[in-house]
Amino acid sequence: MGRSTKKGPFVDAKLMKKVSALKASGGKAVIKTWARSSMVVPDMLNLTLAIHDGRRHVPIYITENMVGHKLGEFVPTRTYRGHVRSEKSTRKK
């Protein structure tokens, strides 16, 4: 279920403040954020955001295709290491 169009997209206030300050200065620094529930807005285009995955910050370059998605969608929180091999397939007959 999406957010109400009357309310508009949710973007963390601290994150937007950092984005607007970086855009005004014209720098290319990486912005660290823990706000995974924030939506990608057009102001964030061509910036690099380091999104927290629960253990470290993963740098993500924001492109035009990402607008409208949540930041957490681009950084998975769980590490998939493959399936464990079952004993039946390794056991000799």
Report on the structure:
It contains 2 helices and 3 strands. Strands 1-2-3 form a 3-stranded mixed β-sheet, covered by helices on one side. It has 93 residues and is an alpha+beta fold.
- Relative strand content: 15-25%
Biggest sheet strand order reads: 1-2-3
Say what oligomer this is. Answer: single chain
Uncertain residue ranges: none
What is the global morphology?
A: elongated
Average pLDDT works out at 90
- SSE string, helix = H, strand = E? HEEEH
Biggest sheet statistics:
3 strands, mixed
Structural class: alpha+beta
Number of helices: 2
**How many beta-strand segments?**
3
Supply Rg. 19 Å
Helix content: 10-25%
* Distance N to C terminus: 52 Å
Concise summary:
This protein is α+β, with helices and mostly antiparallel strands and 93 residues long. Helix content is 18%, strand content 15%. It has two helices and three strands.
Descriptive labels:
2 helices; alpha+beta; 93 residues; 3 strands; three-stranded mixed β-sheet
Secondary-structure map:
Blueprint: H1 13-25, E1 30-33, E2 48-52, E3 57-61, H2 87-90
Parallel strand pairs: 1-2
Antiparallel strand pairs: 2-3
